[in-house]
């Protein structure tokens, strides 16, 4: 037999790294920002890591086997921040401003879902978590013994009627209900003079523990922060959740960075950013990091009395405008100021055949997000504008544009490019609410 001499292979030092990359690319359990259809319920021991009980249920199972909250006809509302100088006025005791219509929902009470894994006891807290990592916590009393002005806290899996204004929820069940499954607090009408089911900022002050009151940008009360989209997990923590108690007041990025223990799931891999490893993920959602492989051929479709599809080159041939824009998200994260260039939405509406004063323009994003603008908003009306101190201020002349350049370069994919909606003016210090700034726009409809 011929003797074989083995030479040392220094590349073996890289073997663990190579294996890790392969495993990460093949076995990865990636966080998802998309409509959810099932929820995993887990109850931990007092150490916050040992699993005592767990189960997973789908929304059809919930509808068939558990009491249904809501009727699919009654609209429920949360309340956004009220930008007033006086602290007391920010609570808006009489519920007069900035309602967020969450639709005519049906769903399942969080308490009934908790009971599937052993339930809660006084002193416990429950975390409701989204597929993208965002989470909120509630104590036993708010889940099992809610004040009527709060009502049951529900994971909603059906929307029977679209929101009248503002953020579009989608209708039916997920994925048609594209913000579902969504956490909605089903308040009664006892504190709203107009008879609406609003869980308002004053309601929050009255019924929520002080450490769980949601503050927009750490300044303004807002119950909108509880309306978690894409709910996929409910975690019960006996004795309370021991993560950051001021999490609700922090930004989205801070929430994502929190280190709370995940329950062991079969075949679950590590959650990391695969872009740094050079791995390709099939079916990647637009919220993922990196450059979209379809950017160069991305198109936006105009649907009205005339239909038209435009590429980036088509848009560059149209008369464009520039302006400054900054926005702030519902969790208080500020972006900008940017110098933006793009096409006035009024010009795009004209290309689509025009619209009258009773019609709306619906903007749809590739990830399913939608927003509708009224006709007067195309003229820059109906927006709250803030200064650098986040105090409401007189609005300069505003313009709505479909932006394709940001600070002299194509709008980055991570910032919503190649096409995103922006509210701009000649004032670099002007800030508007971020829910209007639709990312990854691919459809504009006159309705």
Summarize the structure.
This protein is an alpha+beta fold and 447 residues long. Helices cover 13% and strands 29% of the residues.
Descriptive notes:
- This protein has 447 residues and is α+β, with helices and mostly antiparallel strands.
- The protein has 2 domains: 234 residues, Sulfite Oxidase, Chain A, domain 2 (Alpha-Beta Complex), CATH 3.90.420; 152 residues, Alpha-Beta Complex (Sulfite Oxidase, Chain A, domain 2), CATH 3.90.420.10.
- Strands 17, 18, 21, 22, 23, 24 and 25 form a 7-stranded mixed beta sheet that branches.
- Strand 19 and strand 20 form a beta hairpin.
- It starts with 14 loop residues before the first helix and ends with a strand.
Give the class from helix and strand content and strand pairing.
Answer: alpha+beta
How big is the Rg? 24 Å
Helix content: 10-25%
CA-based shape: globular
What is the percentage of strand-forming residues? 25-35%
Low-pLDDT runs: 1-31, 245-291
CATH names the topology of the largest domain as Sulfite Oxidase, Chain A, domain 2
- End-to-end separation: 82 Å
Present the secondary structure layout:
Layout: H1 15-27, E1 38-44, E2 51-58, H2 59-65, E3 76-79, H3 87-90, E4 99-101, E5 105-109, H4 110-115, E6 125-130, E7 135-139, H5 140-144, E8 153-159, E9 167-168, E10 182-185, E11 197-199, H6 201-207, E12 215-216, E13 220-221, E14 231-237, H7 252-257, E15 299-303, E16 307-311, H8 312-316, E17 321-328, E18 334-344, H9 345-351, E19 360-365, E20 370-374, E21 385-386, E22 399-406, E23 409-410, E24 420-424, E25 431-433, E26 441-446
